[in-house]
């Protein structure tokens, strides 16, 4: 038996509500509210290999972090960078969520603070599947007078960079 569908008048697939030819619909991803001490970042999404990074929030000058079981004091100041990460590749990638480096205005480089990441229960190494999105915070303990300038991100190994040796620097300006 052969069944042919001539058209749809109800706005279902193929109708006007599905968008014009060549247009893609956007997912209804919920908008998040910035935290009271956070500056919303408006910097372009940047790719490193198959991984796309969108930096969404920046908080500076935090003297203390409080987690579910600990209070942790900064040696200088804690800086928090909120980001969304998407694996645009066709395979999963072993994504090191704590590998990113914060670069300050004087050129100093700061690795994610392991204790702060633990206190705030943020991810470490994640098997980031194909087309999977992850949103989280990265915490850094930098000198009290230092100003964050950029975040060097690492998207995970690719066929052209198996060791993920080179990262991509994203400026923290444009907020």
Distance between the termini: 60 Å
**In the CATH classification, which architecture of the domain at 59-171 applies?**
Sandwich
Number of strands: 11
CATH class of the domain at 59-171 reads Mainly Beta
* Class by alpha and beta content: mainly beta
Molecular shape: globular
Largest sheet: 5 strands, antiparallel
**Mean pLDDT rating:** 87
Low-confidence stretches: 1-18
User: What fraction of residues sit in β-strands?
Assistant: 35-45%
How would you sum up this structure, described in words?
By secondary structure, the protein is mainly beta. It has a domain at 59-171: Immunoglobulin-like, CATH 2.60.40. Helix content is 3%, strand content 42%. It contains 1 helix and 11 strands. It has one helix at 114-119; strands at residues 39-40, 46-48, 51-66, 71-87, 93-96, 101-104, 109-111, 125-128, 133-142, 148-153, 168-171. Strands 1, 2, 3, 4 and 9 form a 5-stranded antiparallel sheet that branches. A 4-stranded antiparallel sheet has the order 7-6-10-11, with no helix packed on it. A hairpin with a 4-residue loop joins strand 3 (51-66) and strand 4. The protein starts with 38 loop residues before the first strand and ends with a strand. This is DUF4352 domain-containing protein. Residues 73-153 form the DUF4352 domain.
């Amino acid at each position: 038996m052969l069944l042919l569908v001539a058209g749809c008048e109800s706005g279902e697939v193929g109708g006007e509500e599905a968008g014009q030819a060549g247009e893609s619909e956007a997912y209804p991803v919920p908008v998040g509210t910035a935290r009271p001490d956070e500056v919303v970042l408006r910097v372009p999404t940047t790719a490193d290999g198959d991984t796309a990074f969108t930096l969404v929030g920046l908080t500076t000058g935090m003297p203390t972090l409080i987690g579910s079981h600990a209070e942790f004091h900064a040696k200088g100041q804690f800086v928090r960078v909120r980001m969304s990460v998407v694996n645009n590749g066709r395979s999963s990638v072993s994504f090191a969520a704590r590998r990113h480096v914060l670069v300050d205005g004087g050129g100093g480089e700061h690795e994610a603070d392991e204790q702060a990441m633990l206190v705030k229960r943020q991810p470490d190494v994640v098997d980031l599947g194909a087309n999977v999105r992850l949103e989280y915070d990265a915490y850094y303990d930098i000198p009290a007078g230092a100003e964050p300038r950029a975040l060097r991100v690492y998207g995970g190994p690719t066929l052209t960079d198996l060791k993920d040796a080179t990262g991509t620097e994203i400026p923290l300006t444009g907020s």
